[in-house]
Amino acid sequence: MVIVFLAGGLFSAQKAEAAGIAGASASLVDELSKPDLRIKQLELALKYYKSPLADYSADFVQMADKYGIDWRLLPAISGVESTFGKHYIAGTFNAYGWGGGTIRFESWKDSIEKVSKALSEKYYGRGLDTPYKIAPVYCPPSKVWAGNVTFFMEKMEGFNGKDDLSAQLVLD
What is the mean pLDDT of residues 61-83? Predict the structure, then answer.
């Protein structure tokens, strides 16, 4: 059963059709069946860097949506902190430098969910919703972290598999 959200509340597709709003439900079904472009963009970017996180692109986007954070933030942090998951403490599944990189997670999916949730609660929840606002708490005293995270976020937005994401990366 397809669920339709309209101004009047929650409807099943059958109830929406009976109420004379079948066109609205049909267009919603069309929208829901479209692939999420963000997942493909992220997957292309992570594959470009031969990242072990490429297979988890959908998880990054789903957890970002679930916790209300920018879908590009956590993957971009992994780019800065561990070259997209290629350089981290073995067995930690911590590509984000979380807790100095020493906090251990059960799996990549586990780390993506827990860090997304923590970013939502501990940063976004306090109004720290951009890399420049997050940086003083996440990784003091770096003066380049926020710029690098922002750089990767912007590149992920329109990645087409041909861009060189590292072209303007600033090193500490």
Answer: 98
- 19 with 46, same domain? no
Assess whether 80 and 52 both reside in one domain: yes
Does residue 92 contact residue 105 with C-beta atoms inside 8 Å? yes
Whether 117 has a pLDDT exceeding 50, the answer reads: yes
137 to each of 101, 146, 148, 152, how far by Cα in Å?
15, 11, 16, 19
Same domain for 99 and 130, yes or no, is yes
Decide: helix, strand or coil at residue 162: coil
Integer Cα distance of 126 and 104 in angstroms: 25
Average pLDDT, the chain: 83
Other Cβ atoms closer than 10 A to 159: 21
Q: What is the reported pLDDT for 158?
A: 78
